[in-house]
Amino acid sequence: MTVMQHVWIVLGVLFVLLNIAAGLIWVERRMLAMWQDRLGPNRAGPLGILIVLADTLKLFFKEDWIPPFADKWVFIVAPAVVVGSVLMSFVIIPFTPQIIVSDLNVGILFFLAMSSLGVYSIVLGGWASNNKYSLLGAMRGASQMIAYEVFMGLSLMGVVMLTGSFKLGDIVNAQKDMWFVVKQPLGLILFFIAGIAETHRLPFDIPEAESELVAGYHSEYSGMKFGMFFIGEYLGITLISAVTVTMFFGGWLGWSFLPPWAWFFLKTFAFILFFILLRASLPRPRYDQLMETGWKILLPLALANLMITGAVALLIRG
Amino acid sequence: MFSHIRTIWLTFLHLFKRHVTIQYPEEKIRLRPRWRGRIVLTKDPDGGERCVGCYLCAVACPVDCIALQATEDENGRRYPEFFRINFSRCIFCGYCEDACPTYAIQLIPDFEMGEYNRQNLVFEKEDLLINSQGKYPGYNFYKVAGMDAGVKQKGEGENEDAPVDVHSLMP
Lengths: 318, 171
Description:
Chain A is mostly helical.
């Protein structure tokens, strides 16, 4: 591929992702409303889709306030970190065999590293705010991240073992006969739970917990800085959905009546909707319950899954 | 764990349920005939005011939003000289309607009373009077009352006996 083609792919991926993240504002509000027997925003534009525009404009015109007691530069940088790190993770996502920014040979590790970086945004944001609620949220975010990051990586290792490669392109191609969801159902469940905790989505929005901590780590943020956290969250949902699809549901693979990218987006969208469905249905667990489940149940399960997968793989290969 | 999955499934099923939202300005809610909304003063079948200015509504009103002054015409028929309801105070409890002996004051199913100016919520008699009998058609207080107030002669009312000549009631 020429340099220009690479540039176009990068720009195209950025354009599509940021639009998806913005569009999810509308999707989430409409779907939540549907699941609660309401209608949701339906005034601005056809089916209310222009609520995205209205929301963005509103965020831009809000007072961009930095509290005098905040650590100014860290406060400004923090929201950018989350968007940056999540966007970086998309580098390794194969949308189709051709459309991929870079098929790194450490793909999955790169994704895990980048998504862990996202927690810096929470910690720095909460710390720089110099506010007890923000700090509590940041602390919760950090410990939740540590608890869930561990078995998030381990839950993916089963797939990596079966493929024998960290490259996402190889992993998708290895699913031509059978999606890994069949061979690694436990891995899928564990990864998805970790993914919810990773993106701080309900029911695991402990660092935000608006009923306990005002708005958690972004209590002090307003305007577009808050918007960045917001977009980071939606990008995170898209990322986790995309990785789930790539790792367990055959990525771009599908019947030939639809092009590969359409399959990828359809599957990803289904998982995004599932994220929203979880928000609509499940209550938030208590903080210590969350940590306990993470360390005492899910981590041993991930290890057991890894061990059994390894044993079976060894047996088959002889 | 199982209950969580069941919860998710039940929530998902709500996708196929009818929404309960009423899109208000375009779609009106159906209000029951006895719904307690805006207060009106009704007229009797002959087009006269039903209100006899007895003050019972003003007394019954728990927030004192009704003010009126009774007077009489040349036939001795009582009517309110002015009748004022301050809807910025009214709590739509309907006690005035209960208290009214002549079915004059009634609450109707209408709630669209938004105003920009508080003073516009003070309704005078000409705002309150409607050209209708409201919920009690056919009722005319002066037709069943004993007195002659220009509506009917004494003793000619419904279910009313002719006046007795007291001089003939000697033992």
